[in-house]
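Let's practice the habit of predicting before peeking. Look at the sequence and jot down your guess about where helices and strands might fall. Then scroll down.
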Amino acid sequence: MAAIEATTYHSLPLLNHLSRVGSREADAALAPTGLKPRHLVALMLLDGQKAVTQQHLAEALSLDPSNVVGLLNELESSSLVSRRRDPADRRRHIVEITADGKDAMLAAQRRIAVAEAHLLRALSPQERRTLHTLLVKASGNASPPQPCKT
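Done guessing? Here is the structure:
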C-alpha cells in the first residue's frame, strides 16, 4: 500500500459529519408525518412497483428479513402498505404500497426536499446535482437501495 501524503484530502470524516447532521435534519423534517427515514426509503422502493415479496424488499433495503418484518408491521399498522400471502407460495408475503402510503410518501418527500435544501444551502443547484451524481457513483460499491424487481 502506498504511503498517504499529509496533503491528501480526507472526505470520509466530512461525509460522516454531513450524514449525522443530515440524519438529524431528516428526523426533524419527518417527525410531523410520523415516518422515519427507513419508512420513507421502503415506501420509495415500493412506489411504482407491482407487488413484491417481502424477501425482495429485504434484499433491496440490505436488511435482515426479521428487521423488515418490524418495518412492515409499522407501515402496515398505519395502512401505508398492505401485506398478503403469495397465492403461488403460501410461505411468502407480497407487499404493496397503498394509496395512503403513496400520499404519505409524497408529503414526506416534500418535507425532505426542504430539509435537504437547508442542509446544502451553501451549494448552487448545479453543485447539488453534481454532488448527487458523485454520491450515486461513489455508492456503487456500497450497495445503495435499488428498486425491487418482480
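How did you do? The two ends are 43 Å apart (CA to CA).
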